[in-house]
Design goal:
- The complex is a heterodimer of chains A (about 250) and B (about 1000).
- Chain A is an alpha+beta fold.
- Chain A has a single domain, classed as GHMP Kinase, N-terminal domain (Ribosomal Protein S5, domain 2), CATH 3.30.230.
- Helices cover about 30% and strands about 25% of the residues of chain A.
- Chain A has five helices and nine strands; from the N terminus they run αββββαβαββαββα.
- The longest helix of chain A has about 40 residues.
- Chain A starts with 7 loop residues before the first helix and ends with a helix.
- With about 1000 residues, chain B is an alpha+beta fold.
- Chain B folds into four domains: about 200 residues, 5'-nuclease (Rossmann fold); about 220 residues, OB fold (Dihydrolipoamide Acetyltransferase, E2P) (Beta Barrel); about 280 residues, no CATH class; about 90 residues, Nucleic acid-binding proteins (OB fold (Dihydrolipoamide Acetyltransferase, E2P)).
- In chain B, strands 18, 19, 20, 21, 24 and 25 form a six-stranded mixed beta sheet that branches. In chain B, strands 10-9-8-11-12 form a five-stranded antiparallel beta sheet.
- In chain B, a hairpin with a 5-residue loop joins strand 1 and strand 2.
- Chain A: This is Ribosomal RNA-processing protein 41.
């Protein structure tokens, strides 16, 4: 029985040795798969995601009299059977996966300049290679990078992270710290929310919470989350700029 | 195609990344591979007040706070380490000697608990882990948890082929080495030369040797303790190590059968061949236990040491039913351990093997069997079982005394270690074998011990001393002993709890201005003529009453309860403490409060003549005491008078008093009689329990006399209205919170409970006991009257009470509404609302009622079914323990009151065995066992007596004439006192005179 989150209060150290406001190591690269229009590989701790984008393209199946003047974002999440600790095959239409797809699609519908490509679709495929918490956030981050790699015009990055509320050490004083960027174990034990923002001003475009948390703690959690999204945006931006630089150098050189 | 090379570049300069991979086997047999990240860092402080470098680097929490440093700058010095020292114990040190680390006083302070060790302790034993965590929170002990596996310098990677244990030992050594070096640097920075030693405590020889090689200060636990003052006392608190036990194992032969494996037990229980239940030992016969299992109505019997196979009363065991030819009748004989095991030598099974069942025990059992066989015709044999495994030990700390016969050397200054027997106060617990160096000093003392193990080779469990409570029979020691025995939390309230009290202290008063937030939602009831009626000398006044005649001829009656929930807010330290204590415990000379004195006896207490916050239940009752309407409100009241029961009775009876207050009380009296009559008609039981009051001398609180409690009409007056309030509140909170209301139920007793009593009454008195409903029981109890003996009815009621189930608190969502019934009170629904000062359940009910009337929102903890259930579970246990402790206290004081006196009193025989009988003496509310061998004329002729279990009689042939003793018979007994050998208690000794 390894230690659990209840020991956080002893030294303000989390299960993996991080402090409350530390992100996990975030590593990402662009254009990792040349057969697609855009792709990205992202590691947020041990959560690993490969994202590919194809489009904008004509819809494969015309659904009725499709008069839409905007490009449609279609998201498919593929949780690989080997991604978790238990090897298990997931049914295609599983509710959780569907919800994940829908959340990601809705979020990008808001930032992609779809009116430039009427009557077309942009397909985003997210392959979850390894899971260790903050799945939705990692999916959003990976999708952002892949869309940028595909050259889809967007108003800004979507950067996402998770925040939990740590158990407080003393019931009389609520001294619980919000914890940023959860790993799988923390996610199982603590109440948490996923938050995503777009733009430098930090406009919230996704906020999802499925667990119960004390009302009074929510504000601190959201503010730490916003800060975390800002940090992630910085890292993603750096990844994109580095990649751009390399591409340019290759062209010029 | 780009290659995806993983970069290990760190994200921040102070952290580096590592990962931890391990395999885990699940219950299903599946193996999982788990990979975890590990962020190694350098900002984990050493937490020594000597170090300034760490102070700067400890990062703040979200609330901008940093933890204060724990380890003292001037830690305690010993002979070996004159410069002071910090301790770094390894896992085994904690596992074997947690009691030692918990000792109060100067020893074992400034301890560094390594993360590696904490994790290992958690793996090995969850209770010990919890105790260790509690220690780290205890400010006085200065325990610091150092997360060595997260600190870059102390992190240790497991080498290929290295076992986990070796890796952990290495981690401990590395942390010690780092600490020593770190402190040296810290001290040099301060330009001082003295820095504390960092001592690794380990019993692992290999690790100690390596530590020496690496120049790390290390010591094994024993030699470290030897260097401390008071070493003898401390050494006894170390559980004997495994090596010592193993060494013995090779020599001794096994005495008990081996337990089945956990999986075998679980499969057995699942498919019905084995049964699981709690092992209960009979208080009259230590060799006989019963286990109640869900599969059968009646409990199964477990007889003899071999069959009970190392189970201790209270353990959760798995049993197997024996073949029918081994079934036995429940013992009709009193067997006490002291009679049979007197001459055993505690040291004995170290050198020679012994049988589990001694010759004398075997003889006693044979006799049992013979008797059982002699009565085969009656088919009294019952299903008998044997213990095949233990699911969960329920060992706690036991209070007892050292068996003086087991002590070898009596000289005080002998420091030789010897093994002695400790005889627990609880007769159902076997003797505990304890190794000690202070045996002579502990003779005649009340001591606290704990059981460590019970190996197959050992006839008795092995334990170790924790501490001595003081001399036997001194008030302090005995009171503490019974508090410990019943697990009553009696330490003074910690500072965090006292901090929750209102800052004004005794100066607090109801705010004058009605605009004050304290007044919002409160009704001003200060005009009402309210009074309280309580036992004389009561200081925590929970309840007050009023009644007045309404113009329409009905009555307005109010019950006003102290508004404790105003002062005790959910989830603060005070609330936590109160919920742990669960109830106030009343001993004869002492009260152990649930809430701090300031609240209990002053701010909450509805004292007369001053304004107090209250929670009021106000009814309109018609002339027949039927409820027309009821309202609940928070209020402010001013009690006009605090009466004792006697004073109230006098005032009501005094015709000359015609003021409104007295009139109100007369209305109350009239209505309460109607209520009572209605309740009785509905089938409420009027039960009896032997209650006595010990009169004590006011200054020394030495007992002077014993009296049975007197009941006046005013007692019943208060009781009736409290019941009415409880019932009204119960329906209200159930209506508001159908899933989470905290209620109280009393289940109908199963018919089998009454079988024995019914049969006894039929055989001896020709009376019938109907048990179909509570009404039937009440009616037939009323008919059990012996014209010549007025007390007989009470005796039957006492016996009937013992057949009942005990009432319990529960969460409404966990039971079907039909199960809510309170059998004894014949009410469909019931809760406790009227004593929030002394019962936690009432406090919770107050909060729920306050939310139900929209006074304040309900706290989250009261909305969760699981949390309420946990609270109920705890308060049920606490309630029971408090009763037991109270009874034990009365028993002790009755003993003291009778000390040195010899009296003759009437008594009644309430239980009969083949070799003795139990006599109840109503005058003192005591019951005592008279054994045949204690009767002078019977000595040596016990075998001649004839026990007729059908007729519940025993014919004694020892005297010149035959003498028959039978159940319910009135006898005269001589009462004297004696210090009981087996439990060390002063007890009443009864002798038959007539």
């Amino acid at each position: 029985m390894p230690l659990d989150t209840s020991t956080y209060a002893l030294a303000h150290l989390r299960l993996d040795g991080r402090r409350w406001n530390e992100l996990r190591r975030l590593h990402a690269s662009l254009s990792v798969q040349s057969s697609s229009d855009g792709s990205a590989y992202l590691e947020q701790g041990n959560t690993k995601i490969l994202a590919t984008v194809s489009g904008p393209q004509e819809p494969v199946r015309r659904t009725g009299r499709d008069g839409s003047s905007e490009a449609k974002i279609e998201v498919e999440v593929n949780v690989t059977p080997f991604s978790g600790t238990d090897r298990k095959r997931r049914a295609k239409g599983e509710k959780r996966v569907q919800e994940l797809q829908l959340t990601v699609a809705r979020a990008f519908q808001g930032v992609v300049l779809g009116h430039l490509y009427p009557h077309s679709v942009v397909e985003v495929r997210l392959h979850v290679l390894s899971q260790d918490g903050s799945l939705l956030a990692a999916c959003l981050n990976a999708a952002t990078l892949a869309l940028i790699d595909a050259g889809i015009p967007m108003t800004d990055y979507i950067a996402a992270c998770t925040v939990a509320s740590s158990p407080s050490s003393d019931q009389s004083i609520d001294d619980s710290d919000p914890l940023l960027d959860l790993n799988g174990l923390e996610e199982q034990e603590l109440p948490f929310l996923s938050i995503a923002t777009s733009g430098e001003e930090g406009k919230v475009c996704v906020l999802m919470m499925e667990t119960k948390v004390q009302m009074a703690r929510l504000e601190a959690m959201v503010s730490v989350g916003l800060d975390g999204c800002g940090q992630i945006r910085g890292i993603l931006d750096e990844v994109v700029r580095q990649h751009g630089k390399r591409v340019l150098e290759a062209k010029v050189g | 195609m780009t290659s995806l090379k993983r970069s290990h570049a760190s994200t921040a300069p102070t952290t580096t990344l590592s990962s931890k991979t391990y395999l885990r086997t699940l219950k299903s047999g599946k193996v999982q591979k788990i990979v975890r990240e590990l962020y190694l860092r350098q900002d984990i402080p050493c937490s020594s007040q000597l170090c300034t470098a760490c102070l700067d680097l400890a990062p703040p929490s979200f609330h901008r706070k940093t933890e204060p440093f724990v380890l003292s700058a001037t830690p305690a010095a010993t002979k070996q380490y004159p410069q002071g020292h910090y301790l770094v114990p390894d896992t085994n040190a904690f596992l074997s000697a947690m009691d030692l680390f918990e000792t109060e006083g100067a020893a074992f302070q400034d301890v560094i608990v390594l993360q590696t060790v904490l994790e290992e302790v958690k793996n090995r034993s969850l209770p010990l882990y919890n105790r260790l965590i509690a220690l780290t929170k205890n400010e006085g002990k200065r325990f610091y948890v150092f997360f060595n596996d997260f600190r870059l310098e102390t992190y240790v990677q497991r080498d290929a082929g290295e076992t986990i244990n070796d890796r952990n030992d290495r981690a401990v050594r590395k942390a010690c080495a780092w600490y020593a070096e770190h402190l040296r640097q810290a001290v040099t920075a301060r330009q001082s030369a003295r820095y504390p030693a960092v001592i690794m405590i380990s019993n692992d020889k290999d690790s100690l040797r390596k530590a020496n090689a690496e120049d790390i200060e290390a010591s094994n636990l024993e030699s470290y303790v030897k260097g401390l003052p008071d070493a003898d006392r401390l050494l006894d608190m170390v559980a004997s190590s495994r090596e010592q036990r193993l060494a013995r194992e090779t020599k001794a032969e096994t005495l008990y059968p081996e337990y089945l494996s956990m999986s075998a037990m679980l499969t057995g229980v699942k498919n019905g061949t084995l049964h699981q239940g709690i092992f209960n030992v009979s208080p009259y016969n230590y060799l006989e236990g019963t286990v109640h299992v869900p599969a059968f109505d009646r409990a199964l019997i477990v007889q003899g040491r071999e069959n009970s196979n190392r189970a201790v009363s209270g353990d959760i065991v798995v049993i197997e039913v024996l073949p029918k030819d081994q079934w036995k009748a429940p013992s009709s004989k009193v067997i006490e351990e002291e009679d049979l095991g007197k001459n055993e030598n505690a040291e004995v099974d170290e050198d020679s093997s012994e049988a589990i069942v001694t010759e004398r025990e075997r003889r006693a059992l044979q006799e049992e069997v013979r008797r059982a066989h002699g009565q085969v015709a009656e088919g009294k044999k019952q299903p008998t079982a044997k213990v095949v495994g233990i699911i969960k030990r329920n060992w706690r700390q036991y209070v007892g005394h050292v068996d003086k016969d087991s002590v070898r050397t009596r000289t005080k200054d002998s420091r030789a270690q010897q093994t002695v027997f400790l005889v627990p106060m609880d007769k159902r617990i076997p003797k505990i074998r304890v190794r000690t160096r202070q045996a002579a000093g502990l003779l005649g003392q009340r001591v606290l011990v704990t059981i460590d193990t019970w190996d197959r080779e050992s006839r008795y469990p092995v334990g170790h001393f924790i501490r001595s409570l003081g001399e036997l029979e001194t008030k302090g020691a005995e009171t503490e002993a019974l508090l410990l025995e019943w697990d009553v939390q009696y330490r003074p309230f910690p500072r965090t709890v006292l901090d929750c009290l209102p800052p004004e202290g005794h100066e607090w008063e109801v705010p004058k201005s009605v605009d004050d937030p304290g007044w919002t939602g409160r009704r001003d009831l200060t005009d009402l003529l309210i009074c309280s009626i309580d036992p004389p000398g009561c200081v925590d006044i929970d309840d007050a009453l009023h009644a007045r005649l309404l113009p329409n001829g009905n009555f307005e009656v109010g019950v006003h309860i102290a508004d404790v929930s105003h002062f005790v807010k959910p989830n603060n330290a005070m609330d936590k403490e109160a919920s742990l204590r669960g109830t106030t415990v009343y001993l004869v000379d002492k009260r152990i409060d649930m809430l701090p004195m300031l609240l209990g006896t002053d701010l909450c207490s509805l004292k007369p003549y001053i304004e107090r916050y209250a929670f009021s239940v106000i009814w309109e009752l018609d002339k027949n005491a039927d409820i027309v309407s009821s309202t609940f409100t928070k209020s402010v009241i001013r009690s006009r008078e605090a009466f004792s029961y006697e004073a109230a009775q006098l005032r009501i009876d005094d015709k000359s008093q015609q003021d409104d207050l007295t009139k109100g009380m007369r209305h109350l009296m009239m209505l309460s009689k109607r209520l009572r009559a209605k309740r009785m008609a509905a089938g409420a039981l009027n039960l009896a329990s032997p209650e006595v009051r010990v009169q004590t001398e006011s200054e020394t609180s030495d007992p002077v006399d014993v009296q049975t409690k007197q009941l006046l009409d005013t007692n019943q007056l208060v009781e009736e209205f409290m019941l009415l309030a409880n019932i009204s509140v119960a329906s209200k909170i159930y209506e508001a919170f159908p899933q989470t209301a905290l209620l109280r139920r009393h289940a109908a007793p199963p018919k089998t409970n009454f079988e024995e009593l019914g049969n006894q009454l039929k055989v001896k008195k020709g009376m019938e006991l109907h048990t179909d409903s509570s009404k039937a029981v009440a009616d037939s109890l009323d008919k059990c009257v012996d014209q010549s003996e007025p007390f007989f009815n009470t005796l039957v009621r006492i016996l009937a009470t013992r057949c009942m189930m005990s009432a319990e608190y529960f969460c409404s969502g966990t039971q079907a509404p039909s199960e809510f019934r309170h059998y004894g009170l014949a009410s469909e629904i019931y809760t406790h609302f009227t004593s929030p000062i002394r019962r936690y359940a009432d406090l919770e009910a107050h909060r729920q009622l306050a939310a139900a009337i929209d006074y304040e929102p309900l706290d989250a903890s009261l909305q969760s079914k699981s949390k309420i259930e946990a609270v109920c579970k705890n308060i049920n246990v606490r309630h029971r323990n408090a009763q037991m402790a109270g009874r034990a206290s009365v028993e002790y004081y009755v003993g003291q009151a009778l000390k040195g006196r010899v009296l003759e009193e009437d008594g009644f025989i309430m239980r009969i065995f083949s070799n003795g009988f139990v006599v109840f003496v109503p005058r003192f509310g005591i019951e005592g066992l008279i054994r045949l061998r204690d009767l002078p004329e019977e000595v040596g002729r016990e075998q001649d007596s004839v026990f007729d279990s059908e007729d519940y009689s025993l014919t004694l042939r020892g005297g010149k004439v035959e003498r028959k003793v039978e159940l319910f018979q009135k006898v005269t007994v001589k009462i004297s006192d004696e210090a009981e050998e087996s439990t060390g208690k002063r007890k009443i000794k009864l002798q038959l005179t007539k």
